Amino acid sequence: MSKNKTTIGDFSILPISIPPVSSYARPVLHHLYVRRNAPKVPTENDSRSLFLANVPVDSTDLHLRGIFTALVGAGRFEGVTFEDERKSGSYLRPDDVLPAQALRLAVHSKKRKREEDKEKDREKEESLSRLPPTWTRPLHRTGSTAVVLLADEKSVERALKAIAKTHKTRQYPTWGAAVADRVPPLGSRWLRAHARLSYPDRSVVEESVNTFFTMFNRREKEAAELAKRLRNEPDEDGFVTVTRGGGGPGGKGAPARMSEAEEARRKMLEKEEKKRTELNNFYRFQLRERKKAEQAELLKRFEEDRKKVAAMREKRGKFRPET
């Protein structure tokens, strides 16, 4: 990369000084690429957020907070969302493995009002259903991305100007300068901690598994009861949940599969389209008949006028004026 280059396309280049470590005793420069955040699906915070590419693998919230504090001052950095968190989250949510029937009815469940204490109980239950993490500190893939949220749009402007200024002053922010011992260490201690956390206490595992299956069974029961209630209950748009016959799981009280619902919807649309086409054809038939009648009437009048003219010509031919 050219030493004088400060931008690549829409990205501003931010050199970051990586201090020496025991495994590599020389300082190096890491280039972070920064631009205004412009996702395909806009959000309300786009104007005050920055998109970062080539994020260091050991990045944490504290590392990036230190970088942007050095650029725009304290109190401007609000948070960061890393690429792996945007794609799948840091853990598997219980909702990802709930009964299929419960997932199909999730939209109806969300419409019900929940009290705050019930919501807190659910969050606590979900927390207990997750196994404890096995890594004290996550690592990101090489060249990953992140979105940094700042206090306001003015902070974004200040950050981009500060990045441009670093190329003139050669005073680059130092990676991890404000972190110190506030994050778990990497290296051999990190791997030893992972080996220890990979074998949690049996009581912790039992509590997590029992809590998960209790939640799974309760939500499956709630989904079955909700399906039974919705079988003949129209929603706010006047539609009734499509159901299929048969007993037992997936029987009378269960909602139809997506393919069955789509097939029913397709048949309904075809029926409506057929009615509309028949109605349009009926009107067109009337229009054609009316035009034919008007044309016949014009031809009739034309023939009558032609006969009158012929009669007048014949009468005029026999007339002889007196001399």
Automatic annotation (TrEMBL):
Region (Disordered) residue spans: 108-139, 236-273
Domain Ribosomal RNA-processing protein 7 C-terminal: 197-322
Lineage top rank: taxon: Eukaryota
Limits of the Rrp7 RRM-like N-terminal domain: 10-194
Basic and acidic residues bias spans: 114-128, 259-273
Gene3D superfamilies xref list: 6.10.250.1770
Biased composition regions of type Gly residues, renumbered to the chain: 244-253
Classification via PANTHER family: RIBOSOMAL RNA PROCESSING PROTEIN 7-RELATED, RIBOSOMAL RNA-PROCESSING PROTEIN 7 HOMOLOG A-RELATED
Family classification: Belongs to the RRP7 family.
Protein name: Ribosomal RNA-processing protein 7
Organism: Phialemonium thermophilum
